[in-house]
Amino acid sequence: MFTDEVLDSVSVQSLWRKSQQAAQESKGCQTRAVHSAEAVVQTVCKTISSTQTEPQDQETEQLLLLLQNRDEPEPPGPRGFLQRVEDMVIRELVNNAKSHAFDGLLVNWENYSQQVSCLHCLQHPRAQEKGFHVTSVSWSCTGSVIACAYGRIDDGDWSTERSYVCTWNLNRRGLHSKQADLVIDVSAAVTALCCHPKQPALIAGGLYSGEVVVWDTSRTHDPILAQTGMSADSHREPVYKVAWVPLQKKGEFGVLSASSGGRVLLWMVDSDQGRFVLNAAYAIVRQQVPHSSSASLKACGRSTVGVTSLALSPWDADTFLVGSEGGLLLRCSFSSQTPAAVPSEGQSVMLRAPAVFSFRPHSGPIHSIHCSPFHRNLFVSAGTDGQVHLHSLLQPNPLVSLRISNSYVFQVQWSPTRPLVFAAANGQGEVQIFDLGRRSPRAAATIGQGDAGQAATCFDFNCQNPHLVAVGKTDGTVGIWQLSTDLTEQSSRENSQLEQIANQVAE
User: Fold this and answer.
1) pLDDT given at position 56
2) Can you name the residues that pair with 258 across neighbouring β-strands?
């Protein structure tokens, strides 16, 4: 018989075995599958930096301390050198300023491949179909609009032909060279044109019929602002020159017109009434022309002298110049009170004789006169004799005479930016640009290559953009040309050279 203790021990051992078996069974269980993934990331980052210094040893530091503590002067440097040579450099600069060794030398720091180039060739097909010539061109005061007049320069009875005035705005996008921005139909051929110096919409014109007109281009339907009509006060022969003249009242301008009938008339524009009011009238009378030692007047059947050109002095509001059909060249005064020796023909204003001085005449009609914008006494004149005369208002004989063409010279004009430069348009189709500083009779540059049978009748420098010049021809085209910098930028000492020319005594 087993005792109770023996039975208890047997049961305990049996329980322990069962637990061991259960543990072994649990160790054999299977877990869930483990998922894995591979990923690769690659970056490159490089930085390179370096510094280099020269180590300063102890002996060098001691040497620098000794030099700083010494009372001896510093070694010579730029300051001492400049102080020593200052007097010598100033003395040489003064000597160079007085030297004339390099007078006339033109330094061109840049290489200009072309002095002149054509930008536009403007045309009005209807005028070309009728065979009209470009008789006058004028830039607006803004320098963006070019106005062109059509007529004829040849002989013949064409006074009844209608003509045109056209304008192109060069700053307008989509410029059409064969389509003008504005076309004004005119009752007669236009012989003269001049844009207003302050108001870009106003243009004054002279007609072959003797009328003077002012157009307002802002009024597209009826651009005529004022017109003289045919009256006792108006011209009765072709008007060859018109110009805007500042009046006594500040800001107001009148229109000065000159005709081959021998009259020079000053008009005031009454824009409210749409008409002109005659302010002053002058007559160039042969018997009242002052004679100089070099001027000779040929006999003529009529007493008045036909005026073919006129110029205003930018320096003296009382002075204007007149050129005649017979080559007579006169200085005139607006303030003259001498009555003209011509019979009265019912004018509302007394005719006065303005001539106060006579210069040596040309040998043919004078087509153009222009006063220098850089010297109060200098002007140039040109005409059918192919010559350009450089004159001083103080001397009867010309200072310089240049024969620049075997044909007519239709217009001459000073450069608005170069004191020594002027240009002339001739019957050979060229506009020649002359530089008095070169001391050579040859042109410094030529616009056009002398197209056969196509005369250059007129041109105008653009005062707002001096690189541009407009040239009109007998083929009815207006060329817009660009000038290089050496033809427009003033070089050193030009004004002093011009002063030397003005002070010389004519032969």
Assistant:
1) 57
2) 241, 264
Cβ-contact 396, 389 below 8 angstroms: no
The span from the CA of 403 to the CA of 340, in Å, is: 35
Alpha carbon 129 to chain centroid, angstroms:
31
Confidence of residue 110 (pLDDT cuts 50, 70, 90): very low
Per-residue burial over 40-58, b if 16 or more Cβ lie within 10 Å, else e, is eeeeeeeeeeeeeeeeeee
CB 199 within 8 A of CB 175: no
Q: How far apart are CA 275 and CA 280, in angstroms?
A: 16
How much is the pTM? 0.75
Provide CB contacts within 8 A for 364, sequence distance 6+. Answer: 327, 383, 384, 385
Residue 106 pLDDT level (bands cut at 50, 70, 90): low
CB 447 within 8 A of CB 116: yes
Q: Is 196:212 a contact under the CB 8 Å cutoff?
A: no
Is-contact 164 124, C-beta < 8 A?
Answer: yes
Structure tokens at 451: 């197209």
List Cβ<8 Å contacts ≥24 apart for 30-38.
none
Question: Which are the contacts of 320, defined by CB distance < 8 A and separation ≥ 6?
Answer: 256, 264, 310, 311, 312, 313, 332, 333, 334, 354
List, for residues 149-168, the tens digit of each pLDDT value.
Answer: 999 887 555 557 889 999 99
Q: Quote the tokens at residue 232.
A: 């006792």
Residue showing tokens 């010309």: 398
Nearest to 411 by CA among 473, 355, 494: 473
Phi and psi at 495, nearest 5°, equal -65, -40
Q: Tens digits of per-residue pLDDT, 47-58?
A: 777 666 665 566
Residue where the block lists tokens 């003064």: 94
Q: Identify whether the C-beta of residue 284 lies closer than 8 Å to the C-beta of residue 322.
A: yes
- What is the DSSP track for 97-154? HH--TTTT-----S--S-SEEEEEEEE-HHHHHTT-EEEEEEE-TTSSEEEEEEE--S
Instruction: Record the tokens describing residue 456, joined without a space.
Output: 């250059």
Of the candidates 395, 448, 477, 460, the one whose C-alpha atom is nearest the C-alpha of residue 423 is: 460
| Cβ 116 vs Cβ 481: under 8 Å | yes
Identify the CA nearest to 441 among candidates 388, 366, 362, 376.
388
d(CA 152, CA 134) in angstroms, rounded, equals 7
DSSP symbols for 45-76: ---------PPPPHHHHHHHHHHHH--SPPPP
Question: Which residues, listed in sequence order, are joined to residue 332 by a DSSP beta bridge?
Answer: 320, 355
